[in-house]
Amino acid sequence: MAIDWNSMFMPTESILEVVIRGTIMYLGMYFILRLFRRQSGAIGMADLLVIVVIADAAQNGMAGETHSITEALILILTIVLWDVLFDWLGFKSVMARKVLEPSPLLLIENGKFIDRNLRQEFLTEDDMLGVLREHGLESEATVKQCYLESSGHFSVILSTQRAHAKTEGNG
Fold it and tell me: 160, 146 in Cβ contact below 8 A?
């Protein structure tokens, strides 16, 4: 089993060309994403998919194999435009939203874990207790409902008894 050290470490293209390609691809992707993507607090599943596909498309332009920088930028722009179209459809159409975005999933109801839904998302009760602690809660007993939202965030609604006790304690 011979190792070809020369092909592993010796560049086949000009170092300057690699730097120029990398610079153009970075700036091109940066401006495309700045123009078409909003800033959000979390990365959703669709955003992650777009980033992975863009990375795959961009490597062709950066590596300088058989694809030009122009082709790679056009491919990235096409991917981003599809993502924007899906976001726009989800915003404009209830039917498209139902297809493109998962519904919130109820994980806790009236202080009880919903095991079937936890299993569906590969979440344990310990995972959920950690989520509740992040929301300043000690246990599931004080929770009226807890949902896993389509954004990947958890929303927690306290039971009226707990909410009432908090209000009385603060006043």
Answer: no
CA distance 88 to 64: 34
Structure tokens at 108: 């806790």
- The pTM assigned to this predicted structure is 0.57
Backbone torsion region of residue 59, taken as left when φ is above 0, otherwise alpha when ψ lies between -120 and 50, otherwise beta: alpha
- The answer to whether the beta carbons of residues 60 and 78 sit under 8 Å apart is no
* Neighbour count for residue 83 (Cβ, 10 Å): 19
Q: What is the pLDDT of residues 104-127, one digit of tens each?
A: 999 999 999 999 999 998 999 999
Map out the domains of the chain as residue ranges: 11-99, 105-170
Let me know if domain 105-170 sits in CATH 3.40.190.10. no
The C-alpha atoms of residue 139 and residue 162 are separated, in whole angstroms, by 11
CA distance 22 to 18: 6
The alpha carbon of 17 is separated from its chain's Cα centroid by a whole number of angstroms, namely 33
Instruction: Give the whole-angstrom CA distance, residue 167 versus residue 159.
Output: 12
